[in-house]
Amino acid sequence: MAGQLSGRVALVTGAARGIGLAIATRFAEAGAHAIIHDRDEAAATATATDLRTRGLAASPLIADLAEATAPLAMAAELTANGTEPDILVLCASVENLQTWDAISEAAMAAQTQINLHATVRLLQVFVPAMLARGSGRVIAIGSVQEARPNPTHVYYAATKAAQTNMILNLARTLRAPDVTCNIIQPGAILTDRNRAVLAQPGRQEQVLARIPLGRLGRADDCAGIALLLCSPEGSYINGAEIAVDGGLRL
């Protein structure tokens, strides 16, 4: 609904494509100023330009979350532009497909750095201002892999489960009347990241057989619940783990 997020500023990490793009777009359509974060400058700039062409408020924010100083630099730029976020969506992640006996040091380091370390840094940088204002929303994009991991996702699933634990910890301990922390756990969503995997012979049929609804999800399927969590109607939802997976976790 237009105007649901009027006056709000939403920072969505990894927002140049996939689920992040769908959520940032829905927020902008609801009246928020969408901060399109990505390490891909061309993609983030193009996304923000497209939204502004539609008469929506959006700005690109370029940063590599693998760098420990990135969140502080992001905050400084947003403060200078007068766009401090009161909504933070943690969507950027690294997903390496390796079995438990073949996980490389590089894969472990990359997934830990983005999925866990960057999460902590972003929370440390942006949540204090929400607490000071007395209002804010934090959403982490988890994964169905937390509940039903594949053999090739053992480490990725572990990092996502750890991220969820962090968010639930904050949901319980921040104790601010209007600062909520929730998790959206997508299932098999047809994003660019998943297309190559699903294109493997027989893979899509195998996945569809496990989904009670019998179809793959769309990135937009995650945007509506994100909007609810950040709207006035969702203000009493805190510490929720919301699956958007067509029943795949069952």
Automatic annotation (TrEMBL):
It comes from the Bacteria. The keyword Phosphoprotein does not apply. Its EC number is 1.1.1.-. The keyword Hydrolase does not apply. GO terms for molecular function: oxidoreductase activity. Keywords: Oxidoreductase. SUPFAM superfamilies: NAD(P)-binding Rossmann-fold domains. Signal peptide: none annotated. InterPro entries: NAD(P)-bd_dom_sf, SDR, SDR_fam. Pfam families: adh_short_C2. PANTHER family: 3-OXOACYL-(ACYL-CARRIER-PROTEIN) REDUCTASE (PTHR42879). Belongs to the short-chain dehydrogenases/reductases (SDR) family. This is SDR family NAD(P)-dependent oxidoreductase.
